[in-house]
Design brief:
Helix content is 78%, strand content 0%. By secondary structure, it is an all-alpha fold. Keywords: Membrane, Transmembrane, Transmembrane helix.
Length: 54
């Protein structure tokens, strides 16, 4: 595993690795975790008619 990271840093540089990790982390948060949390929030709300909401 250490060899893989050494090769990646040699090929992409520290800034390239940081960019890859940052973009993957951002994608993970906004495309996977956030929608799951929104669906979890909606799953606990009662299904009310529009007149009774709010």
């Amino acid at each position: 595993m250490r060899r893989i990271w050494e090769d990646a840093i040699r090929n992409f540089g520290g800034v390239g690795i940081a960019f890859i990790l940052l973009t993957v982390g951002t994608w993970l948060i906004f495309m996977i975790l956030l929608p799951q949390l929104i669906m979890l929030d909606f799953s606990f709300r009662p299904l009310l008619p529009l007149r009774k909401i709010g």
